[in-house]
Automatic annotation (TrEMBL):
Residues 34-144 form the SHSP domain. It holds the Pfam family HSP20. GO terms for biological process: response to heat. The keyword DNA-binding does not apply. Belongs to the small heat shock protein (HSP20) family. Keywords: Stress response. This is SHSP domain-containing protein. The lineage of its organism: Eukaryota, Viridiplantae, Streptophyta, Embryophyta, Tracheophyta.
Amino acid sequence: ARTIQQMMDTMNRIMSAPTAPCATWGPVPVKERRGYSSGRTPWAIREKENEYKIRFDMPGMTRSDVKIWVEQGNMLVIQAEKVPTEGENKDEPWPAKSFGRYHTKLALPENVDFKNVKAEVKDGVLYITIPKASYTNRIDIDVQ
């Protein structure tokens, strides 16, 4: 599980020095790089004044393939799975459709309005809008 702050720190690091090696793992030799090693990351997060916006690339996934829930108080769980249906040959060398699984957990900060989280899948991309909670339970203390 990652926290929103860890994801934002990673995004800031990638954007400020995209070719810099990672301090904890060291540079990855070019011949061992796979997937999103260059170009766009499979996710992005933005913090705005009243909300967090998260984008996850999920190629081939549709609304019915994606499940999202909150557990353990503040853990956002995102799970997607596309399985071949009857009649589709997943053993073809170049199947027409993609199949696979995606699962991640994201620890949300305490200032989140969980009841108003919104998610949408559009063109293989999951967009999540997480509103920040407003703290209206202010208690003024009389100073004597």
